[in-house]
Amino acid sequence: MDREPTYGATFVRHLAKLGRHTPYRYEDLRLVKAMSQTELADWIKGKCPEFSLVVRDNPAEVAAAMVHEKRLAMTARSGDMAEIALSLFELLTLLSWGSTMTATPLPTGPDGRDGGQDVAGATAIFAQWQVYESIIDRDLMRHREIYAGIHAFVAAIYRRPFSLLDLGCGDASSIARTFAGTALAHYTGVDASAAALQAARRQLAAAPFHVALVETDLLEYLTTAAASARPRPDLILAGFVVHHLSFDEKRRFFSRCRETLAPGGSLVFYDLFRRATETREQFVAAYTDLIATRWGLVGQTLDDTCRHVREHDFPEPLATIFKLAHDAGFTQPGEERFTDADGFHRLVCFATEPLPAQSAPRTHAGIQPPRAARSRKRNRRPD
Ligand SMILES: C[S@@+](CC[C@H](N)C(=O)[O-])C[C@H]1O[C@@H](n2cnc3c(N)ncnc32)[C@H](O)[C@@H]1O
Question: How far away, in angstroms, is 339 Cα from ligand 1 center?
Fold first, then answer.
């Protein structure tokens, strides 16, 4: 006898997409992946006898059947993978979380104190540093290309000893490598996560430059300690952290960086970005889809990573970041040094003086062509 086709990977991908909007149990999804429709109906009956598979004429009846009759319902178009997935997903939600079918609303901004970043929430995921480490190792956020771009930028314009302030430094695992062969003399790493800084301390134990690590909120640091810190930073690095801030905090971030930098200094900014016309909802849908389909994460790790994006990532489009930097007094328009094919991960450099033309070599695929020719060569002055 011919066996019915199983649901397979496409089906599970649909479920994973739906899972962005409401919590779901990954183990359940894995189980159903290999089931035929008949097996699925049996499985559901076994799991919870009052549930059974029914066919209804239209989506409103399907919804009613699921909410009121607690049945896995689908319309006659049940060959449609997305629809089956939706029905099953909603049923699993009922099974796992009682009778509520309310989707978790997507936050419109960080929900920390005074509408600012929820720092503890945003940093919590980094307590499990191994997950982020493996994301970097597999270059899923394009760290390799970004660090190459930073090295090229720094080597071209920072020829004399300089100081670096790294905001949201994490475990600083790539700092020594990225700045090898440059004139880096003083490094200050700031991070709100004690676990990250503990790892950073180990990573930089043998660094050939002076190291200071400060456990605090980066805006707090820029507002208080940075003004009196010596030497003033010639270079500020902010990597994959500013997208956690509220819009108002992002504005303050750029202003404070501009005030903190030594004369002639630069801000090297790499982060998550929204595409030009993308809403936050569309960004969350697209980025969590990329994570679910291309990052190879499973189970709790996949859930936690997608939840982190949903709850704590508030990236801006490139034009907004350019405007914030320009308003803060950085030279217009900022230099795009790297953008990945999806437009999510970018490296942009902002200067307080026009940059020399040779500072933007195109060393690998994905590096953007230099923007308008820089007006004059600049020999970086030491502080
Ligand atoms: C995605 S990691 C980036 C680490 C590193 N910069 C990189 O490029 O891989 C974000 C880091 O920012 C830290 N962080 C998030 N919000 C922060 C804040 N408001 N102040 C200081 N650190 C923060 C987190 O603890 C985490 O270590």
Answer: 20
Closest Cα partner for 293 from 2, 1, 17?
17
Question: What one-character-per-residue DSSP string does 231-266 give?
Answer: SPPSEEEEES-GGGS-HHHHHHHHHHHHHHSPTT-E
pLDDT, residue 66, reads 58
Residue 125 lies in a domain: yes
Pocket of ligand 1 (CB under 6 A): 117, 119, 122-123, 126, 168-170, 190-193, 196, 217-218, 239-241, 244
Same domain, 125 and 184: yes
What is the torsion angle, in degrees rounded to the nearest 10, for the CA atoms of residue 149, residue 150, residue 153 and residue 154?
Answer: -150
Over range 133-138, report the average pLDDT.
Answer: 88
265 and 125 together in one domain: yes
382 part of a folded domain: no
Cα of 4 vs centre of ligand 1, distance in Å, is: 49
Q: Which of 97, 129, 146 is the last residue of a domain?
A: 97
Q: Which of 28-42, 44-58, 95-109 has the lowest mean pLDDT?
A: 95-109
pLDDT of residue 296: 85
Same domain for 220 and 173, yes or no, is yes
Range of the domain at 345: 113-359
